[in-house]
Amino acid sequence: xxxxxxxxxxxxxxxxxxxxxxxxxxxxxxxxxxxxxxxxxxxxxxxxxxxxxxxxxxxxxxxxxxxxxxxxxxxxxxxxxxxxxxxxxxxxxxxxxxxxxxxxxxxxxxxxxxxxxxxxxxxxxxxxxxxxxxxxxxxxxxxxxxxxxxxx
Length: 152
What we know:
The protein is an all-alpha fold. It is 69% helix and 0% strand. 18% of the residues are buried.
């Protein structure tokens, strides 16, 4: 699974709030942790493996966030006029938290197809094959998820 889609861990890291510049490092951490723990996996079915790997990704993203909050680094730029706008950064962070919370609140049957489509960039055919659903069902679930998010 890891060798078939190496960018998936990077994309999942970004979707969990990891800065794109550090997403490769977090993805590598996820892969390393998965490799070390693979002997403890009981099922080799795709769904449980994805859930297991997703749990590792969430934990790695949380570790990253804790580490980043402890060691705030600000890169100094020669151009002082292009300084960071703290207000807009705060608004973006708040909006991002709301989106993540809203997506997390979706039922798994809606959340997984939405994430596979929006975050992983999979087509409806690929999602249907991965989840064992029909294309129409995948489109319907993604549509329902988007409608549910639009009401929030």
